[in-house]
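Spend some time on the protein that follows and explain the fold to me:
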Amino acid sequence: MERIVLIIDIGTQSVRSMLINQAGDIKTMEKRSYKYVVDNGYIEFDADEIFMIILKQLVNLHNRNIRDYAKIEGVSITSQRDTFVVVDRRGNPLRRCISWMDRRKAKNYPRPSFFHEIAFKVTKMSDVKKSLMEDTRFYWIEENERDIFERTYKYLSISAYIAFKFTGKFKDSDASTVGHIPFDYKNRKWDDFFSVKGQLFQIDEKLLWRVVGSTNVIGKIKDEICERLLLKKGTNLYASGSDKTCETAGVGAIDEKTASISLGSQTTLQINSNKYYELDKFVSPFCSVIPGYYNPEVIIYRGFWMIKWFIENFAKEEEIYAKAHGISTEEVLNKKLNDIPAGSDGLVLNAYWGQEILRPNAKGSIIGFSDKHTRLHMYKAIIEGLFYGLKEGILKMEKKSKIKIESVALSAGGSKSDEICQLCSDILGKRVYTIQTHEASALGAAMAVFVGRGVYRDFFEAKHEMLRIKKEYEPIGENYAVYKSIYKNAYSKVYPSLKGIYNTK
């Protein structure tokens, strides 16, 4: 008998709602982009617009596939992280949702205790502390929008807000509880005030949501919502996780020997581990969508966003060609990657275009220019630089876990390109693979629901039944040797050499 779950994925670019069966097939999907309000580094969107998009998508799913829609036995939400909305006592938003991409800074935020300040100085983490507190949106609202702050009843993640709209409960998954908030990831609960995170993110627990373990029921979907969306009354909303942790499970990276790399706007490297360990001081692994597991993670904040940056500034010729031939500009550029030799003729990029938590003062750099370099050299150097950064993360993970990563699963936009996938394999020196769908986050969320409903015993069985490898890539020896030398003798020395310049005021 075919089993069907409904997954709602609130991404950075669009909202996608889809029906997925227990074999990992996407039966029907609706996708729609939404609008941002962008002004001088402020990046916001309307949380209620997201909800209305979801309602319309679900009605469309029903109309397009009545038979499978009638089989829905559970619903789950996966979404972007570190994106918050403030609501009043009735759960109505008091302002637009602030995106994780937002670059506003709080200036007058509460100071940690004297003893915590000493600890940050002793551990040389004062700059990291300052960066984390400045980027806490809660502090910015408290400082700049006092009227809204004083009327705030709850400070919710976007997934917690949509869960409230469906169930009437302020609850969300522990694996969705990610961001500048006082959460104890090790013990899966809100941190106390005198802990490190409690001092960094001084937000009263009563303003936050109740945390539910992944695969458990958040609540029954309200009768009026079920009636409006033609769902069976009593349908449950299940806890899954954020987009990144669901993506990691969805591509089959469910142990420490397989890593997941998400080649999205924010590029991330994750593994799943049943052990809690911090790759860096005060940087916790997040709760995995797999119960009892954690996700040690490395983030390149402006990852494959840099492709968009390059196209907007340097690829007008390719844009015109792509439009004339009905293909994407990325596809045109990627087909030319092999025209440039491995190592981009000595051009090396450090991808610090966005703010890095552990290197808050770092800036992006491209070094090694000569008169033979072209725009295409820059394009390839961008992609190589991103993978050098991820290689650094893999080496750190292997050192910390004492387990060698054997395979890397790729997902999100960059994984659609064979050329980029091969570049990844060549630079990392690892077997790389892609799976049957680009909707890996939704697939991981679907696994959580099927495990929660007892269709599968655990994520290992769900992976076996729902995941299919589409294509594999092995390192090309000659290219790997070039990249290994560049990483050791050039890339790894750039940041230490430029650090003093970055810190110059």
In short: The chain has a mean pLDDT of 94. The longest helix spans residues 375-401. Residues 118 and 126 are 9 Å apart (CA to CA).
